[in-house]
Each structure stands twice: as structure tokens, then as C-alpha cells.
UniProtKB/TrEMBL annotation:
<dbReference type="InterPro" id="IPR045006">
    <property type="entry name" value="CHLI-like"/>
</dbReference>
<dbReference type="InterPro" id="IPR003593">
    <property type="entry name" value="AAA+_ATPase"/>
</dbReference>
<dbReference type="Pfam" id="PF01078">
    <property type="entry name" value="Mg_chelatase"/>
</dbReference>
<dbReference type="Pfam" id="PF13541">
    <property type="entry name" value="ChlI"/>
</dbReference>
<feature type="domain" description="AAA+ ATPase">
    <location>
        <begin position="202"/>
        <end position="383"/>
    </location>
</feature>
<dbReference type="GO" id="GO:0005524">
    <property type="term" value="F:ATP binding"/>
</dbReference>
<dbReference type="Pfam" id="PF13335">
    <property type="entry name" value="Mg_chelatase_C"/>
</dbReference>
<dbReference type="InterPro" id="IPR025158">
    <property type="entry name" value="Mg_chelat-rel_C"/>
</dbReference>
<dbReference type="InterPro" id="IPR004482">
    <property type="entry name" value="Mg_chelat-rel"/>
</dbReference>
<dbReference type="InterPro" id="IPR014721">
    <property type="entry name" value="Ribsml_uS5_D2-typ_fold_subgr"/>
</dbReference>
<dbReference type="InterPro" id="IPR020568">
    <property type="entry name" value="Ribosomal_Su5_D2-typ_SF"/>
</dbReference>
<dbReference type="InterPro" id="IPR027417">
    <property type="entry name" value="P-loop_NTPase"/>
</dbReference>
<protein>
    <submittedName>
        <fullName>Magnesium chelatase</fullName>
    </submittedName>
</protein>
<comment type="similarity">
    <text>Belongs to the Mg-chelatase subunits D/I family. ComM subfamily.</text>
</comment>
<dbReference type="InterPro" id="IPR000523">
    <property type="entry name" value="Mg_chelatse_chII-like_cat_dom"/>
</dbReference>
Amino acid sequence: MAVVGIEGRPVRIEAVLLHGLPAVTIVGLPDAAVSESRERIRAAFASAGIGFPQARLTINLSPADTPKSGTAFDLGIAVAILGAMGGREIGQRYVMGELGLDGSVRAVRGILPAALAAADEGAAMAVPPGCGKEAELAGVRVKEVFHLAQLAEAMRIPCGPVPDAPSPPGMDETEAPPACPDLADVRGQAQARHALEVAAAGGHHMLVTGAPGVGKSMLAARLPGILPRLDMHEAVEVAAIASAAGEFDGRLSYTPPFSSPHHSSSAAALIGGGAIPKPGAASRAHRGVLFLDEMPEFSTHSLQTLREPMETGRIEIHRARAVVTYPARFQLIGAANPCKCGNYLDAPGKCTCSVRDRRDYFRRIGGPILDRFDINVVAPRLSRADLAEAGAGEPSAVVAERVAEARLRQRARLRSTPWTANAQVSGSWLRRNTPLSRESARELDSMLASGETSMRAVDKILRISWTLADLSGRSSPSRDDVDCAFTLRERNGFHGTH
């Protein structure tokens, strides 16, 4: 099974022994790792006590136009060679695994996406040891193979003795997954906490601006703890992406993922890339949170690649050999200092940045990306007295209950639409189905007519208004909801230009 993106594509492996000088030829668009399998297979045959055929051996990977990459084809090619040597058929079965020089079978990435494709066909799978539980998540029949001699013996090919099975890796099944950091750890910052709750309730993108050390990263790290837990289908979808990236640890997690790439990350690292593209940070944050700390320090090109997935929830990468579509329904949380030196908000007198420097600093993010943030909030630095008075805030569990109730109201309201959260709703639906007071409607119309705001910004204000209404249990947004949404949208008057 070739894994292209997070999609498993069946590959039929054929082998034929021909007259001529001994040689091994692999055809069918293999990459370097697949072509090198001939040397690993020769050594594995020798270690397993299997006589390698002294003939011209041609191996075909069909269909030839499907890209094949990685070492997962080793075991399948070895089975095809054993079949060409006169072994009996093993039936319709997908085989994945890397062969070591000692004949052992080693784990490979992409087992879960391959198993999902095999389950659709009702086929069984042979996988490396330790990968059986991952494949079983797809509901497919699985057999673990730990040595090449196992297959040779099953196919009645003379071979050496089958070695003892390796001990399974130690894993405490009762061990609980690491808990998300608690929102109670964040002291003060009432406005930023409220904005985070609104973002969680509606699935909104949020930008937090503040001086270094005010708690921007702390807030972002606690967002997964107040988001609704994933259901089984969503958890398997997230696990399939992690498996395709080679990061799945075998445990199915129902906590939304959290991805925090470094600001030096390239565009390929953010959205995926390579000759055969692999998932990037945006796809690994699917159904969860993508946190970009020090956002203006990212390259402008890298940030602009997020424009489409922020709106559509997917990434489409075109390469000469393949077109890959990744799911990327993430919630973007950005954090930024007010200026390069970081002192503008706390101590303007100590700020060494000019007006132009501050404007250019936020210009690195780019207007199109800034416009796609539903919520913008400024986090001030709290004094020691403010921190002493603030005390511990509400714990994540309490906030998560309100968020879950708001999400239920959204699902009920949007049940006849393709959307499940307010942040996904189209502008045309919002404008048709959002009852506004006469004052609110007049104010928004005036802003549009004067060019003070765009239609996209108005749509985002309406989305946030619905989320505020859902959190309050109202059937439609009130005037206060619209005013609060406008405040959350406008970055409290700070635009990096003052």
C-alpha cells in the first residue's frame, strides 16, 4: 500500500524469473529507498536461510504512475519473490514492512492510512511487530510478521529456523495520557481569558498581542484543555495524519492536537512538502490548535501559505509526480510582541522602535492574514499588586463545560448545513439568518459604506456575535453581543502604528 499524503493507494507487486545473467530490476516509479530494497532483501534472504534465485529477476510495482516511496515495500517485494520461486499464494493481503539485514521486519510510517484503505476493500494486512494495534483501529484483520522466515515457512519455501518472536515493547495500557495544562494557572488577564473562551466556543482564529512574559504562550497551551473532546472518527482521522508523518505512538488520543512550530520553520514545514509531500504542522494540528509564537518572526512567504487552509480547512499541494490534499481544519492562535523590542505597550519611553519600525513589524504578518483573525486581543502586563489581587482563575473543566454547551447549540442550529461551528459558517448564510437590532445594522452599514471595514470583517463580527449568544444561552445575538464582537475584532485600537 503506497501512502500518498494520508491516503492509502493499493499497489500490486509482481515478480518474474527470466533467463539471463542474475540481476534484480525494480520498475514502476520507485524512489531511491524502494530501489535500494534489493540489497536489503538479498541480505535478509541470506540471514533467513533462503536461497536467492540465480536468475534475471524483474519486479513490477503496479500501477506504474502511482509514486512509491519509503521502505514499506521491502516485505511485499520479498513475498513476490518467494511467490515467483514457487511458493503458494497467500491470498488477497496487504503487506507492509521494512526488512533488516538480519531478516527481521521493522516498523514503517503510514500503517493506519494504509489500514483504512485496506478495510474499505475488506482485505487483511500483514504488518511489522508492534503495528498490529495501530492497524486494528481501522477495523481490518491483522497479522504481525516479525521475520522473513515466517513468510517463507508459510509459503513452503525452504528456509532456516524461525527465530523466537521479539518481546513486545513495554507499554502501560492503564497509563493515562498527559493532562492538558489548566487554565487556572493563568492569573489575571480577564479579557484575554474571555477571548480564549469565545475562540474555543466558536472555533475562531485568535491573535494575542502583548509584551514578552505576559502569558501569551500560557494561554495558547491551555486552549486544547477547554475544547470539546474528539469523537472516535475524528480521533482516528488525527491519528492517520500522525501515522503518515511517522509520529503516531500507537495510542488513540481524544484530546485535540496542539502543534507549535518554531518561527524559523519553512513553508514546507508549515503546510507539508517534499517530492512526495508529507504532512506539515498545519495538518498535524487538524481538529486542534496551531500555535505560532512570535508570529511576525515567521517569514512572510511561510505565513501566506496559511491563507487558504484558514478559510477552507484543507491544503492542496501540487507536485510533478502527485497532487496531495491534506485536511487542515485547525484553529490558529498567533502571539506577537507589540514591536521588535517588545517595550512599546509597557514602557513607551524605553521603546527603541520608530513608528515605521512598528508598522513594518506587523506588516511581516501581512494584511490578508491579519484580516483572517476573528479575534484580536491585547494582553497587558500586570503589576505585582494586580497579580496578588487576581488569585487563581476558573479551572479548565469549568470553562470547558460552557464551551461544550455552546458547541451543542451551534450543532443544533447548523444541523441542516455542512458546518458544525460558527467559525465555518459562510457569510451569505450569516447575513440571511442573523437578526440584528436596527442600531447594529445601521452601524455596520455605515462602516461598510465609508470603507472603514470590509465585508469579510462584518461576517467575522456576526460569527463572533453568534458565539457570544451561544455562550449566554440566547437564541440570537443581542446588541451587546454585536458590540462585544466588534471590540474583540478590532484589536482594542492597537495596530502597531501608534
